[in-house]
C-alpha cells in the first residue's frame, strides 16, 4: 500500500472516496468537512441536524455524492470529543475508516489529516499515527487461506492537506509510522503463524533476515553452546521437545565508543507452550502458539531500531524453545542450574517462561548489559489483573520504569506499573534449591516477575507481562483480531528516548 501526502483541496480529488471527520457536538462543520458540506449543498449539516451524524468516536457515515463533487463517496468519520482527542484517536479512527472503506471494495482513497489543524497535535505525530493506523488497521493474516476471493487490499492512500506548511512534516511522520508499523507487522506475523511453522529454528531465520536487512550482527547459540555456558534452566524447558532450542542474539551498535551505554531487550520465545508434564487443559491450548510474542516483539523492534539508528547499543536476546511433555521432559521436582550458578526447583513445568528468561538475563549480565527490559507472555494472572488493554510493568529501577511507560504512551501501547516487594520472596522459597519456579496463586504475576528479577544482577531492569495484550480477541482501532504486535513500538520508542538522553 502506498501512502502519499499531497497539498490540495480534498473535495477536488479525482478518486472514488474521501474521508473527512467530525467532532462530537459540532453542528456546522468547518475546514475540509465544511468544504465538503458546502460542495454537497449542506448534506452533512443536514445529517447532523437530523441526528443521524453525531461525530461520536468511531461512528462512520457514508454519503454518495451523485456527481456534485469529483469524489464519488464521502465518508464522515466520528472523532469523539475534541478535548480528549489525541494521537491514539488519530491512529484508531484512521484504522477504522480504512477498514470501513475496504469493506465497501474501495481500493484508493484520499483522507484529510485528522487533528492536524488543532493545537497540541503536531503534523509529524499525525502523519506517524495515520501511517500506523493504515498499515496495522488493514493488516490481515490469510496466507493459509486457499481462497481470498472478494478480499481486496487498499492499494493507495492520499493524505490531502490544504496547508502547504504542514505537508513536509506530515510526510516525514508517515515514513516514521511506516517503519514502526512494518516492524510490528513482523511481530504479528510471527505470533499468528502456527507453531508447526514458527519453530525456534524459524524464529532464528526471521532474526537473520532482520539482521541482514538492518546490518545488525547476529549470533544464534545452539544447544551445545547453551550447555557450555551452563544454561540449565533453558535446556531443562527444551529437553521435552524434539525442536532444537535457539538463543538468538541480535546486536545494534549505535554508540560503539561507549560500550556501557547499552540496553538489553529480552524476549520469551516459547513457540508452543503445552505446559510440559504439568500439561495445560486442551481448551484454548492452541493459543499457546503465541507464547513467543515477547521474542517476536524484540526481533521486530530490532528491525526498526536499525532503521532509526538511536545513539546507544542495543542487544536483543530471545530464548526460543518449545515447552513439550516428551519422554525426556523435565519433571516437577527436578532441580536445574541457571548460567549464573543459582538453582531452581521445578514445581510446575508450566511456569517455563521465567526459566528461559532466567538464563537469558544471566547471559545479558554476563555480557555487560546495564539496562534491560524483558518481554513475556508470562502469566495467566496478568490477564485477570489488567485484561487486554494494559501491559503490566514490574522492575527494580523507577527511572527505567518511567521511561518504558512514557515510551508506551508515544506508541499508543498502555502500560501499568505493578509492584515487586521482598515480602513476596517467601512464596517461592524451596527446601532443596535456591528457589522454586512458582510462588502460588497470590500475586502470581508479581512472583513470576520477581523470579526473573533474581537473575538481572546489578542491571536496571523492567519486566513487561504481555499475556493479555499480545493478542486481541476481536480487534478494534489499529488492533486486528489475533496478534497485536505489542509492545514492538514501545521498545523502539524506548531505545530512541534512551539514545537521546
Ligand atoms: N504462557 C503461559 C501464560 C499465559 C497464559 C499467557 C494465558 C497467555 C495467556 C505461562 O507459561 C504459564 O503457563 N503460566 C502459568 C504459571 C503458573 C504455573 C505459575 C499460569 O499463568 O498459569
Ligand atoms: Zn508460557
Ligand atoms: Mn507455561
DSSP helix fraction: 25-40%
Q: Write the CATH fold name of the largest domain.
A: Aminopeptidase
The secondary-structure class comes to alpha/beta
- Percent strand equals 15-25%
Alpha carbon gyration radius: 24 Å
Which SSEs are present, and which pair or pack?
Layout: E1 2-7, E2 17-23, H1 31-39, H2 43-49, E3 60-64, E4 73-80, H3 87-103, E5 108-111, H4 123-137, E6 156-161, H5 164-192, H6 200-214, E7 217-221, H7 223-229, H8 232-238, E8 246-253, E9 262-273, H9 293-308, E10 313-323, E11 335-337, E12 343-345, H10 353-366, E13 371-376, H11 380-386, E14 391-395, H12 398-411, E15 415-417, E16 435-436, H13 444-453, E17 460-465, E18 471-472, E19 482-483, H14 488-500
Parallel strand pairs: 1-6, 2-4, 2-5, 5-6, 9-10, 9-13, 12-16, 13-17, 14-15
Antiparallel strand pairs: 3-4, 7-8, 8-10, 11-12, 14-17, 18-19
Helix pairs in contact: 3-4, 4-5, 5-9, 6-9, 8-10, 9-14, 10-13, 12-14
The structure holds ligand BES, zinc ion and manganese (II) ion.
Ligand BES binds next to helix 11.
